[in-house]
Amino acid sequence: MSDYEFITLEGIEGVGxxxxxxxxxxxxxxxxxxxxxxxxxxxxAIGEKIRDILxxxxxxxxxxxxxxxxxxAARAQHLAEVVSPALASGNCVVCDRFFDAxxxxxxxxRGLDMSIIKSATDLISPxxxxxxxxxxxxxxxxxxxxIESRGKxxxxxxxxxxxxxxxxESYLNRARLEPKRFCVIDASQSLGEVSDRIExxxxxxxxx
Length: 208
Ligand code: TMP
Hints:
Structural class: alpha/beta
Shape: globular
Largest sheet: 5 strands, parallel
Order of helices and strands: EHEHHEHHEHHEH
Radius of gyration: 16 Å
Number of strands: 5
Bound molecules: thymidine-5'-phosphate
Helix content: 55-70%
Strand content: 5-15%
Number of helices: 8
């Protein structure tokens, strides 16, 4: 076991991260861990305000660089206020999205230079590398159908199919490059099957 347990969940929209997070929480708690659930952008009062700005469809004029720096500002606050103290106290932190999302969305999605994203990420989070990243992967079409069934969409969800194809591919590439950290879960299966798979992965990794 590492000194800390920092688990992140990633994936395009509509892959079922919210349900998956509850499964992660339950399995870890069953294994005697104290679990803190949090999310990005957000997780702090300041971060949630930044999240509202980022997700609002009224902010269509936002430039990709503004978007990047707002996300990073929310992350810096989140690390200082929530993640760092929680890990230092021995908690397991489970975070809905983290830096992989920045490479996938702002890098592959928006087309920002990956080396700039890497430098900016290193600047604010040099010590926080997730111990496990669950990548919920499903074809863009599957995610789109689930978003549509929810009704209201946010500023990211309004992007076109190509945007999400690039993001999905980027996530899968990252998973291929770091097979030890990533676990790719087929999220096109039923919710029950996805939950079972997550449970199995976590038991293998954390089970006593
Ligand atoms: P959520 O809908 O999964 O809660 O995430 C909110 C949106 O923020 C989602 O569309 C992805 C986006 N996002 C980025 O573009 N870059 C990031 O670094 C993070 C953390 C999220």
